[in-house]
Write a structure and sequence with these properties.
The chain has about 240 residues and is an alpha/beta fold. It has 13 helices and five strands. It has a single domain, classed as 3-Layer(aba) Sandwich (Rossmann fold), CATH 3.40.50.
Length: about 240
Amino acid sequence: MTDAPRPCSNHLDLVAFQYPLPHLADAFKRQRKTRIVAIGSSSTAGEGGIIPFPHRLELALRKRAYGGMVDVLNRGIIAQEAQDELARFEGDVMAEAPAMVIWQIGTNAVFHKEIYNFDDIAAALASGLDWLAPLPIDVVLMDLQYTTAVVKPEKIEFARQMVSLISAAAAAARVNVFRRFELMRQWNENDGVPMSDLIDPTDPDQLHMSDWATQCLANSLDAAIGRAIGKVHGNSQPAA
């Protein structure tokens, strides 16, 4: 007898977007090829043999775009932060002409606080958002993961500062935040999911997310996108 997989809640009340996604919604409704770019560090690129969220999100969104095609392009590079990712924007984001970009930031700045200045992160983030603002691209910022390496006593205050920094940048630019940190905290503290289930068991740093957490993250992100774009014409899949 095998153990049933642990269920996960997408907590849509927590992660639902504040702003609509007009460019993505238009791309879906036209049923043309829709392109999304996910740019970030290791939790975007993938680490430890765990399939990363962009691929899982792509599969979920293809179910919404019935009869259409959705590609979620993975532009994650391990160990990068906002400044490094900003330097790649022209080639990895703009050149792909996506309907939406998911920019995952903040984790390495907390994990390696000794080499990062949060003011520099804020400046790079503001510059990137200014660059994206006039373009026909919806923007979602994804904040850091809630894992042992990020929430241990000597890091937790830095983590909270980074979450606030990302939230403030998003508010100033009027773009959405996918609240990964708060979502994972909810799983742990309110849903009773032990931290060991949130962390990749092969990761000695206890930084990276488990397969279960990565899949649940993709489910929640898909649900937030579904709520924002509404039902896609001709699609038998309801918007979450």
